[in-house]
Design goal:
The chain is of the alpha+beta class. It contains 2 helices and 3 strands.
């Protein structure tokens, strides 16, 4: 039985790489298909937006607002 192929998405080069190409630390995955890897940045943005809209993110939004208020932009 041959090992299954997995794919990764390289965030730096914005390309799909195969598992045998030794994914770098800039990669997210693994994904079962090249198409899943290719679509992964859009899926991550969708998940991030959903999380930001959830109650779970409220403590972090408050911390970010406090940090922004304390920041010196001069």
């Amino acid at each position: 039985m041959a090992p299954s192929q997995t794919y990764w998405y390289n965030l730096t080069s914005q390309t799909v790489v195969r598992d045998d190409e030794r994914p770098s630390e800039d990669c997210i995955g693994p994904f079962a298909t090249a198409q899943e890897a290719e679509e992964s940045p859009a899926v991550l943005v969708e998940y991030a937006r959903a999380w930001l809209d959830s109650e779970e993110s409220e403590p972090y939004r408050a911390m970010a607002a406090e940090a922004d208020d304390a920041a010196d932009y001069s």
